[in-house]
Amino acid sequence: MFKLKDYQNDSVFVRNYNTNYIIHSEAPVYMKFKITILCENSVGPLSGTLGEHGFSALIEPAEGAPLLFDTGQGLTLVHNARRMNRDLSLVRQVVISHGHYDHAGGLKPLLGQCGPKHVSCHPSVFNSRYRIKDNGECFPIGMPASRDELEAAGASFDLSTEFRSIAPGIHLTGEVPRVTDFETGDHGLYGDCCGREPDATPDDQSLLLESGTGLVLILGCCHAGLINTLEHVAVMTGRRDVTAIVGGTHLGFCSQQQIEKTIVELKLRGIKKLAASHCTGFAASARLSRELPKAFQVAMVGYTLEV
Ligand SMILES: [Fe+2]
Ligand SMILES: [Fe+2]
User: Fold this and answer.
1) Is 249:279 a contact under the CB 8 Å cutoff?
2) Which is nearest to 67 in space by CA: 178, 207, 196, 188?
3) How is 172-220 classified by DSSP, letter by letter?
4) Which domain holds residue 265?
5) Is 69 in a helix, a strand, or coil?
6) From CA 113, how far away is CA 128, in angstroms rounded?
7) Which residues surround ligand 2, an ion (CB under 5 A)?
8) For 173-216, what is each residue's pLDDT tens digit?
9) Contact yes or no for 3/16 (Cβ under 8 A)
10) Which in 107, 182, 187, 298 has the greatest CB count within 10 A?
11) DSSP 8-39
C-alpha cells in the first residue's frame, strides 16, 4: 500500500493506492528544462511565426536530446521551429498527447522533413473521432494519417496506457483515471457521426518533468480534467509539488461549474505558474487570470519557460 507523501488534509481526494511505480521522491533528479511553444492558436511578439488551432511544445533538457510533445495539425510546426532556430531533426522522441488532428496532424510532415522518430502514445490514439455540434453538424477530428502511413514515413510507436518514464526526468502520465465528480469534460466528442458513442478520450495523457524547482506538467488538451491529472500524478509519484502547468486545459469547452471547481482546487494546490494555451480559450483564460493573477500566463507560439 502506497501513501501520498505530502498529503494535504484539506484536499477532498483522500485515497490510498497500490502502485509499483514511484518516481524519485527520495533522490530527485533535479534536471533543468527549457519549454518552448512551437504551435498554438495565437502567436506572440516573435515576427514571422504562424498560429493554427493546435498545440506543440519542444522540451529541451539541459543535457540530452530534445523531445517534442504534440505536433499541432501540421501547418506551422516545421516553419515555426525554423523561425526559432530549433532543429527538429535532433528530436528523437515525440509524444502524442491524444489522437486529435490538432495535436497529431503534424506528425507526418515532421517525419517527412525531419526524419524517423520514436513516438510514445496511448494505443487508442488511432480511434475514429468526431465532433458533433449542437446543430447536428459532424466533423472528423481524429488523426489524419493511419498507423501504417506513419510507420511507412518513419514512426516507431511505443504504445502504452501506463504511467512511465521515457527519458531521464521525463515521465508520461499514461491513461488518467476520472475520479472527480465535476470534471465532466467536453460533451461534443463522439466515436461516430450518429452520436451513439460518446468519446471520453481515454488516450489523453500529459507529460511530467522532474525539475529542480518541482514537478512541471505539460498538457495537450487535458480531456481527462486538470484535477484528475494532478491527482493521478500525486498517486503515481507520491509527490504533490507540481509547481508549473503549461498547455491546453480544455476549460474553454467545459461547464462553468468545472471551471469554478478547478480554480478552487488550483488555489488549494499552490500552483506557482499556470501557462494556459489552446483549448483554454479566451473566457476561461480571463477567469483564470483574474483568480490566479500571479500564476497565470498565456503560452502562445514563442513562449518559453525555463524550469
Ligand atoms: Fe486540442
Ligand atoms: Fe483534443
Assistant:
1) yes
2) 207
3) E--SPP---SS----TTEESSTTS-SB---TT---EEEEETTEEEEEES
4) 33-306
5) strand
6) 26
7) 100, 221
8) 999 999 999 999 899 999 999 999 999 999 999 999 999 889 99
9) yes
10) 107
11) -TT-S----B--S---SSSS---B-EEEEEEE
Query: What is the distance of C-alpha 95 from the center of its chain?
Result: 9
The reported pLDDT for the residue numbered 12 is: 37
CA distances from 138 to 129, 141, 191, 224 (A): 10, 9, 11, 22
Assess if residue 19 is contained within a domain. Answer: no
Question: Residue 250 C-alpha to ligand 2 middle, in angstroms?
Answer: 8
**Quick check: 112 pLDDT over 50?**
yes
pLDDT one-digit tens code per residue, 117-176:
999 999 999 999 999 999 999 999 999 999 999 999 999 999 999 999 999 999 999 999
Residue with cell 512511465: 164
In a domain, 199, yes or no: yes
Ligand with the closest atom to the CA of 70: 1
- Classify residue 21: in a domain, yes or no: no
Q: How many independent structural domains does the chain possess?
A: 1
CA of 55 to the centre of ligand 1 (A): 7
Establish if 24 belongs to a structural domain: no
Nearest to 73 by CA among 161, 172, 142: 142
Residues with CB under 5 A from ligand 1 (ion): 102, 221, 279
